[in-house]
């Protein structure tokens, strides 16, 4: 006879983690109903999950009552690839302010590219947000393909990768691989509004310089 005593807690934990992943991947804050629809669960179940996550500071609500990731996640993420974050952050900050674009670091997590840290430019009129925890497959988006180069060891046609609207419609990205000894495969990237007047190859060269300095 199978002991199912641990099944419910494990299922609840899995649902809570999935809820955080959904919120991390959403373009905007979600209502309870929207989150329930994306999870395929009844609102009452999602409400209990959210209350638990709120209690740990992992989920918070905006003034309209919609859900977004909480500040508690920053505490949990602080030691994730801490040395890599420490090495990349100065370069990300310089890139963001120099190019006027949000610069970010992604790392390999199983078969996905996950944003670890991002920096928004100070002077930009309207910066594009790239929230830590956002994830996408390695074959979608410039950062994923840049990371995949390090995994497969297959060189690309260029030293940088580009994407246009693959992960989020209306947004474009330029990324380069970042290989640091002792750290997971990673990439440095910037994101901007599709259609902006930018010199993509020049951005790629600048990212490559930043990646070299990060090593």
TrEMBL record:
Keyword Nucleus found: no
IclR-ED domain mapped to chain residues: 65-215
All residue ranges annotated as the HTH iclR-type domain in the record: 10-71
SMART domains the record matches: HTH_ICLR
InterPro entries in alphabetical order: GAF-like_dom_sf, HTH_MetabolicPath_Reg, Tscrpt_reg_IclR_C, Tscrpt_reg_IclR_N, WH-like_DNA-bd_sf, WH_DNA-bd_sf
Native source organism of the sequence: Kineosporia mesophila
Keywords assigned by UniProt, alphabetized: DNA-binding, Transcription, Transcription regulation
Name the record gives this protein: IclR family transcriptional regulator
